[in-house]
Amino acid sequence: MDGARVDGLGERIRGRREDLVALTQDLIRIPTINPPGDAYTVCCDYLRRRLAARGFDCALIRGDGAPGDSDRFPRTNIVARWDSGRPGPTVHFNSHIDVVEVGPGWTVEPFGGLLRDGKIYGRGACDMKGGLAASIIAVEALIDSGLPLVGALEISGTVDEETGGYGGVAYLAERGFFSPPRVDHVIIPEPLNVDRICLGHRGVWWAEIETRGRIAHGSMPFLGDSAIRHMGAFLHALEDELYPKLAARRTAMPVAPEGARASTLNINSLHGGLDEGFDGFPSAVVAHSCRIVLDRRYLIEETVEEVRGEVVDLLDRLARERPGFAYALKELWTVSPTMTDRDAPVVRAVGAEIERVLGKKPEPVVSPGTYDQKHVARLGRLRDCIAYGPGILDLAHQPDEYVEVEAMLQSAHVMAAAAYRLLTGDLPSGSPF
User: Fold this and answer.
1) Which candidate in 69, 127, 160, 161 is catalytic?
2) Could you identify which of 140, 215, 367, 399 might form a hypothetical disulfide with 105, taking C-beta atoms 3.0 to 4.6 angstroms apart as the criterion?
3) Which of 291, 285, 288, 287 shows the shortest CA–CA distance to 234?
4) What does the alpha-carbon distance between residue 433 and residue 54 come to, in Å, rounded to a whole number?
């Protein structure tokens, strides 16, 4: 690498501190709350105006027919491409623009973009408009650096990551936007700390289970059959049998935090009997239906067939042993675990720049939950993808969410220099860990 000129990237980025702060504040002030999917087009229009003025070819792409898409709440995405005019690879920075609901507990204006003590506050500051802003500053600084560039640089702002990403990265990946030969390397600036490289995530299996009974008068429950009691038997089996098994399993994946290196099961919701929402006195009936939603996170050492089978085996045994026990199972969502190789090109490039810029070895991590890498790998069939960006993951979705300006500057420097390595092919050998 041209060390002196690459080192100049950091100075160039630090000279754009005010621009970085203003850009982050502007993005926070656009309330892209999901659900329902507010202000997606407004946000993409803002990004289009900025990036088009810098010479990017910008396309606004609606996720027609995706979950939640409507004329009132269109699933609008932006893909912006800058081409050097010389043959070479494409490095793509992908950020989601949607944010979760505000929720209670804030002491600052959630969409005010307050700058205080080197931190920018607001919903989405950490997750992940700070990362989006840092990637834009990084790419703009690289283009302006005078370094000899080949290939192309892309920036995308995509939607619905907080609800699965089906109107955003999944929709685009199905149409070739995250596949070779268009794209070779993808960096997702999720908030994972500036010295960490996220290689992937655990798997997900969501299912709704309904136990069934027979309605009867509540004063004579012996004439009916309570679906809630049947569900209680299933919950008892989960507690006594499945939970201990899951807690004993450990993965070789470097999942953070430590507790997520085990298989986990969360009972997402439980409802039985009368419909909720009626504030009068309930009628006296035996529940004929009870439903539960399971959120199972599984390890790369497990298969979805094994995950499903453990639950079905419990249900089938109860059906054999418990009089009247009947159930239905509906699978809601399945995502396979994914983990990029530790010596993949994008890992080596980002790892080398973390060590050079920050003066420390990068830490490999795997996310306990999923993010849009799942669609890049599954639909785009592109394995050279990681998450790397500024911010502290624990602050995501919290009141008084913030991102540190210094972390954004550092990560922008790493992203710019790593992109240059990937474009030029100047990569160290072996894993950086």
Assistant:
1) 161
2) 399
3) 291
4) 36
List, in sequence order, the alpha helices (H) in 29-168: 40-53, 130-144
Q: Report helix, strand or coil for 370.
A: coil
Burial class of residue 107 (count of CB atoms within 10 Å of its CB; 0-12, 13-18, 19+): exposed
pTM, entire model:
0.93
What average pLDDT does range 316-326 have in this prediction?
A: 98
Q: How large is the average pLDDT for residues 153-159? A: 98
Please, is 120 exposed, middle or buried when counting C-beta atoms within 10 Å of its C-beta (0-12, 13-18, 19+)? Answer: buried
Q: pLDDT for 369-406, tens place per residue?
A: 999 999 999 999 999 999 999 999 889 999 999 999 99
pLDDT score recorded for residue 2: 57
What is the pLDDT at residue 327?
98
- The number of helix segments (H) and strand segments (E) in the chain equals 11, 16
Query: Which CATH number, 3.30.70.360, 3.30.70.120, 1.10.8.60, 3.30.9.10, labels domain 203-335?
Result: 3.30.70.360
Query: How confident is the model at residue 278, as a pLDDT?
Result: 77
Res 1 pLDDT > 70: no
Side chain identity, residue 301: E
Consecutive H or E run containing 206 = strand 203-212
Residue 375 is given by DSSP the state H
Q: Is 161 tagged catalytic?
A: yes
Asked if the peptide bond before residue 254 counts as cis, ω within 30 degrees of 0, the response is no
Q: What is the pLDDT of residue 275?
A: 84
> 231-238: long-range contacts (C-beta < 8 A, 24 or more apart)?
231/270, 231/272, 231/290, 231/292, 233/318, 233/322, 233/325, 234/209, 234/292, 234/314, 234/315, 234/318, 234/327, 235/267, 235/292, 237/314, 237/317, 237/318, 238/265, 238/314
Give the alpha-carbon dihedral of 377, 379, 380, 386, to 10 degrees: -20
Tokens linked to 196: 């960490």
Residue 53 reports pLDDT greater than 80:
yes
The single-letter DSSP state of residue 261 is G
Helical ranges in 55-166 per DSSP H: 130-144
Task: Spell out the domain ranges in the chain.
Answer: 3-201+337-424, 203-335
- Tens of pLDDT, residue by residue over 66-118, are 999 999 999 999 999 999 999 999 999 999 999 999 999 999 999 999 999 99
For residue 290, give the nearest of 232, 239, 237 by alpha carbon.
232
